[in-house]
UniProtKB/TrEMBL annotation:
The chain crosses the membrane at residues 6-26, 112-133, 145-166, 178-200, 212-230. Pfam families: DUF4311. This is EF_0832/AHA_3913 family protein. The keyword Iron-sulfur does not apply. It comes from Pelosinus fermentans JBW45. Keywords: Membrane, Transmembrane, Transmembrane helix. InterPro entries: DUF4311.
Amino acid sequence: MDTMTIIMESIIIGALVGFGVGAGAARMFHAPNVQGMGAFRTFGELNACEGDPISHFSFGLGFLFNSWASVVGAGAFTQDVEHRIIPNWAAAALLSRNRKVEETLHDPKKMAFAGAAIGVVIVTVMNSTAVAIPASLQVIATKVLVPAANWLINPVMPIVFWMAAIDAGQRSGTWATVLGGLSQLVMGNAVPGIVLGILIGKGVDDSGWNHITKTLVVAVVLLFVLSGFFRGFDAKLLNEFHIGVPAGLIEFHKIFGSVVK
């Protein structure tokens, strides 16, 4: 397949993906009155940047190199392109001209067209680069960029989000610290827990312990319980304390396809 064909197809795919991602991310700010079309983590990460265009841009940039290396080395896009890079860069582009999130980040129409433009650029550049780079350099790029991106994702990004949570207030800092620690133990990355902690803490600060915040806490607890179970965290925890894993627990895991030792 020649380069021009790849570029033309990348423009079309990037525009379609970016349009949907941008509109979906913005619609989540209008739930439950309007059906959202984005991932919960995307919603949390967009909120964590607090409408600052530089924060949105730098957050997306942090995942760019790992995604780029994946395209160059393996020929596949990571989920970070749709979940993190496109929506955050679309938000950064809009917020750089107007800091009012109600008129930019929360507007599905503006986010859709901004996301389409960002998607065209990102998908086209990544795909054309992957084709242009020789196979020998692809291996080198993968070995250099992936470790560097992994260092950025963990531990640099968790530290940045944790500091932001502490700066947001005592309640947000406490929730983020507790949930971030649990997230690191269960999922191997503290960022999801820290983001959820910020959402819970700020939600309670703004609205108190109402039906929405209580539902959010219950949903977070279920998330950690189910995630820990399917990852076999309960069995690993017993092993760390040198306690034998009961045969009944092992069989229960097998029912759901979660094999533990």
